[in-house]
Each structure stands twice: as C-alpha cells, then as structure tokens.
Amino acid sequence: MNPIKLALQYMDTVFYEKDLDKLRPLLADAFIFEGPFFSFNTAAAYINSLKADPPAEFKYEILRSWEDNHGVCLIYRFAKPGISTLMSQWFEVEEGKITKTLLIFDSGVFSN
C-alpha cells in the first residue's frame, strides 16, 4: 500500500473505526508515535492506549497533503464537541508499514 493510502486508512481507523485492532496491520512492530500529550515506541503500546481511552466523537477534514516515497504529511482540521483546531501529522513509511508518526498541534485548546 502506498504512503498516502496507509495514512488515510490510519486516520479513518483512529477516528471512525470501532475495532482499533485494525490498526495493527498498518503499523510496524517498533512503531513510534510522538505527540504533545503522549509518546509510544511500539505498536502494541499505542493501540492499547487507544483502547484504554477510545476516541469518541472525533472527526477530521484533510486540508492539504504531501507525499514522497517514504512518507506523508497531512494537515487537517480536527474537531470534537467544543474543540476545533488545526493539526499536522507526518507519517514515515517503510516496506508498506507506518514506522513513525509525529503529531503537531496547539495543546492549549484542550485545556479550556
């Protein structure tokens, strides 16, 4: 699967899918997630964290995307009740799996 398709499947799974185990085939075992609130260094730890606090009533709208042979950058509007903000997420891809994602956003909007 090419990088943009992997990234979009990841987004749909995290935001809309009830079965978070569907993330597993998309992620490398040593998947690294870095964001303002959390960091993980295995796919299992990341998926388990989502299962412990599942996304609820989240949605997104892609505004821009860039792709090269090794990754994808998505800029999107994130929304949930009471919060709407821009986010940027970089996905690194190797051998058909997401190996790393870096999520960037203003975390201050979540403290209100």
Task: Explain what the structure shows.
It is globular and about 40 Å long. It has helices at residues 3-16, 43-52, and strands at 27-34, 39-40, 59-68, 71-80, 83-94, 97-104. It has two helices and six strands, in the order αββαββββ. Helices cover 21% and strands 45% of the residues. It is of the alpha+beta class and 112 residues long. The protein has a single domain, classed as Nuclear Transport Factor 2, Chain: A (Roll), CATH 3.10.450.50. 18% of the residues are buried. Strands 2-1-6-5-4-3 form a six-stranded mixed sheet. A hairpin with a 4-residue loop joins strand 1 and strand 2 (39-40).
Helix content: 10-25%
Q: Spans with pLDDT under 50 lasting ≥5 residues? A: none
What structural category characterises the helix and strand content? alpha+beta
H and E order: HEEHEEEE
Which value, in Å, is the CA radius of gyration?
13 Å
Helix count, per DSSP? Answer: 2
Give the number of domains.
1
Biggest β-sheet description: 6 strands, mixed
Assign the CATH architecture: Roll
Gross geometry: globular
Q: In total, how many beta strands?
A: 6
The level-1 CATH class: Alpha Beta
How confident overall, as mean pLDDT?
A: 93
Indicate the CATH topology. Nuclear Transport Factor 2, Chain: A
Write out the strand line-up for the largest beta sheet, numbering strands in chain order: 2-1-6-5-4-3
Our measurement of the CA-to-CA distance between the termini, rounded to an integer number of angstroms, reads: 39 Å
How much strand content do the residues show? 35-45%
Domain SnoaL-like: 9-100
InterPro entries: NTF2-like_dom_sf, SnoaL-like
Protein name: Nuclear transport factor 2 family protein
Pfam family, one: SnoaL_2
